[in-house]
Amino acid sequence: MIEWLGMPVGASAHAVEVDRLMALVHWLMLVMFVGWSTYFTYVLVRFRRGRNPRASYHGVRSRWSTWAEAGVLVSEVVLLVFFAIPFWSRQVDALPAEQGSTVVRVVAEQFAWNVHYPGPDGVFGRTSSDLVSADNPLGLDRRDPAGRDDLTLVNELNLPVGRPAIIWLSTKDVIHSFALPQMRVKQDAIPGVLQPVWFTPSETGQWEIVCAQLCGLAHFRMRGIYRIQTPDEFQAWLAEEAKYLPAY
Q: What pLDDT is stored for residue 89 in this prediction?
């Protein structure tokens, strides 16, 4: 049914569970649509003016409508308690350890995605708003020993397949929404909030980073590229990017 919904390919470990939940929700919506449409049609015919010249205002007196509403309520509770909440607990509350994960900072701004890798030392360098410029949108202090090996890119995110990715999401200005449809990831970037997002890519490929929140007049061009690579390709990419770091 996911194909009928027009969903893109699922390329993360949790994509199957998200798709299953979405399919169940749409099945429930389909049953409700058919049920209420049938009832509406029945009422139009059963209580037409020719058969009931005088209006009656007492409403439905049988209990079947109450049972139908109760059934809908039970279905929604089942979806919430047995599917949505357990998934939320596993995917949001259970953040994996940074050791053994690929950790990246993504800082949104009008109208770009700034990507920050900590380098081989695994420590993000100091940043300061005083250092922000056109050439240094994150304000990274290259004089900080922890920041000398850091990589910064604009609208480009690379991650290895089969390894948990932890993205620390923030924004420099307004609310943005970081969306990776193939990873089944979408998270708002809120001013003043550092929000973790994590997933495990299961397929290699190249897709678009999308801003799913209207963020200004140039919202349409706030697009980036993210690539899921093999571990060897990812390490080779890191080594190639490190060649262009400034020397201190």
A: 79
Which of 161, 156, 166, 158 lies closest to 187 in space, CA to CA? Answer: 166
Q: Give the whole-angstrom CA distance, residue 113 versus residue 62.
A: 58
Average pLDDT over residues 110-119: 95
What distance, in Å, lies between the first and last C-alpha atoms of the chain? 56
Residue 2 confidence (pLDDT) above 80: no
pTM of the predicted protein model: 0.81
- Rounded CA gap, 103 and 154, in Å? 17
Handedness of CA 244, 162, 85, 3 (dihedral sign): positive
CB atoms within 10 A of CB 129: 8
Rounded average pLDDT over 80-89? 82
Q: Which of 15-24, 82-91, 127-136 shows the lowest per-residue confidence on average (mean pLDDT)?
A: 82-91
113 neighbors 105 (Cβ within 8 angstroms)? no
Strands of the chain (E only): list them. Answer: 102-109, 112-117, 151-154, 156-160, 165-171, 176-180, 185-189, 195-199, 205-211, 223-229
In three-state secondary structure terms, 172 is coil
The predicted structure's pLDDT at residue 4 = 58
Determine how many CB atoms are found less than 10 A away from the CB of residue 13. 16
Q: How far apart are CA 205 and CA 194, in angstroms?
A: 28
